[in-house]
Amino acid sequence: MRAGLTVLVMVALAVVPPLLYWYANPFYLDLASRLVILGIAAVSLNLILGYGGLVSFGHAAFLGLGAYAVGIPAHHWLYGGMDAIATTNGWVQIALAVGVSGLFAFLTGLVCLRTRGVYFIMITMAFAQMIYYLIVSIEEYGGDDGLVIDTRSELPFINLDDPLQLYFLGYVSLLVAMLLVRMIVHSRFGMVLQGAKGNEERMISLGYNIYAYRLVAYVISGAMAGYAGALLGNFTTFISPEMMDWSRSGELMFMVILGGFATNVGPVLGAVAFIVLEEVLSSWTIYWHLPFGLMLIGVVLFARGGLVGLFTGRGGKK
Amino acid sequence: MTAILEINGLNKSFGGIKATDNLSLTVEQGELHAVIGPNGAGKTTLISQLTGMQFPDSGSVKFKSRDITRMAAHKRPHLGIARSFQITSLIMQMSVLDNVALALQACDGHSFRFLRPARSVNSLRERGRALLDRVGLADNADSPTAALSHGEHRRMEIAIALASEAELMLLDEPMAGLGAQESTEMVGLLQDLKGKHTILLIEHDMDAVFALADRISVLVYGHIIATGTPDEIRGNEAVQHAYLGEEA
């Protein structure tokens, strides 16, 4: 049943946005591109939040780092300076995005994962805000005003200036991210991660160093979100510290919880719902956050498995 | 006989309360050694220090002559020490077999393996089923853990402790909360384990303890006041005093 839902959603995402682009309004493809890219970030967050039980409130920082890993090399390529990283080569930029995000996840994870519960939420948020203020303070990259990416990443066979190609890169990446998380979750590693969510003390008593397992999961998740950030930078061509603000991290959490955490397709459904609702509600009223918030409360209260639970007629994995 | 576990002069205080007070105890290879004591005697604190969930203020714990007093909790199972919990501690979201398979997986090298689905690893699944069969839960293997009764959870605890094939099993009140019928079954199960494993049994149920134990240590106010065979303990005045005197 849930596998059917996954196939349905992914087929719809492959078919509907291009059709809308060709026959309706090209703007819809923009929405869909944002959707699949944020979907990757939500899928990566789901690995630690949904399956690992680690409520990270700083996931947008990885997105931001990934975007700046595209923006900063492109900036230097155009305006000189920092020759070592000045490039528009997509491979280098993506490697940088994944590497920097993964490293940031590793270093902050070393500290964050020593804490539990509310403290973990607060400290992940604190580290994300730290990066936020760091970027704000760097004049060279526009500080508060953000940075325009004049040249998109250059990749073989793919021209990211073509919105349709950019969309499908995002779509295929999302598909790969979902398969990757699915594989990890079912592996021995994934069983340990989920076991630690279910009963930490038991896992320690069995001899698992759950700190190490969680740290690795945290790094994988951060690196994936960094990759999503690189795509996001290419999509918006304008990046600013605002994209790693704590409220952005909150939006990613919304997607995971709204869609149904600890399910494969949940974060994607959540991203769909988020983008569609944001678009529809904000066209009615500038106070769209209010009805949106009420809906979220409704889902949390009455549909514990999120949208996946609603559609498949049973709650997601609790 | 050789000592497998040596506890020497263990002390642990919480604020002004001495939960463990100069506690010394030796468990011999192969024996079933029971620790009994009234409520609040410090049984759980003792287990916590043996499993590494808490560290003593002073004193030492040696396992097979190796000092493990301050060894991290997650390293101890790999030396051959398994435990069961007084308050059932299982992964409720997973199936019964998943719980046991995770215990087996813990002894099967590191788990930084990302490719193959863990549920398709036959060695883990089959051994898991065999263990469940041994504690009489073969039919429940695929049920969600949360759906099982308390008595069945207690037996799962034993199956998980058995999974590691540990030399020393620390069983923390396996009879806790069991009805008369279930208790009898649990005694039968422990009888079956006796001799095959060295067991340190922390237990409240006197009938069970006297039926099972090779030796019994009596813990009162964090201190062992007597150690001996069931008969010796039965006749010991200090023990009678502790159990019947002031508290009765």
Structural commentary:
The complex is a heterodimer of chains A (318) and B (248). Chain A has a single domain, classed as ABC transporter involved in vitamin B12 uptake, BtuC. By secondary structure, chain A is an all-alpha fold. With 248 residues, chain B is an alpha/beta fold. Chain B folds into two domains: 161 residues, 3-Layer(aba) Sandwich (Rossmann fold), CATH 3.40.50; 77 residues, no CATH class. Chain B is built from nine helices and ten strands. In chain B, strands 6-7-8-3-9-10 form a six-stranded mixed sheet, sandwiched between helices. In chain B, β1 and β2 form a beta hairpin. In chain B, α3 packs across α4. Chains A and B meet through α6, α7, α8 and α9 of A and α2 and α3 of B.
Can you lay out the helices and strands and say which pair or pack?
The complex is a heterodimer of chains A (about 325) and B (about 250).
Chain A: H1 2-23, H2 27-51, H3 60-79, H4 90-112, H5 117-137, E1 147-148, H6 163-186, H7 188-198, H8 200-206, H9 210-236, E2 238-239, H10 246-259, H11 266-284, H12 289-302, H13 306-312
Antiparallel strand pairs in A: 1-2
Helix pairs in contact in A: 1-2, 1-6, 2-6, 2-9, 2-10, 2-11, 3-4, 3-5, 3-9, 4-9, 6-7, 6-9, 7-8, 7-9, 10-11
Chain B: E1 3-14, E2 17-28, E3 32-36, H1 43-51, E4 58-63, E5 66-67, H2 76-79, E6 81-84, H3 96-106, H4 122-134, H5 150-163, E7 168-172, H6 180-193, E8 198-202, H7 206-212, E9 215-220, E10 223-228, H8 230-234, H9 237-245
Helix pairs in contact in B: 3-4, 3-5, 4-5
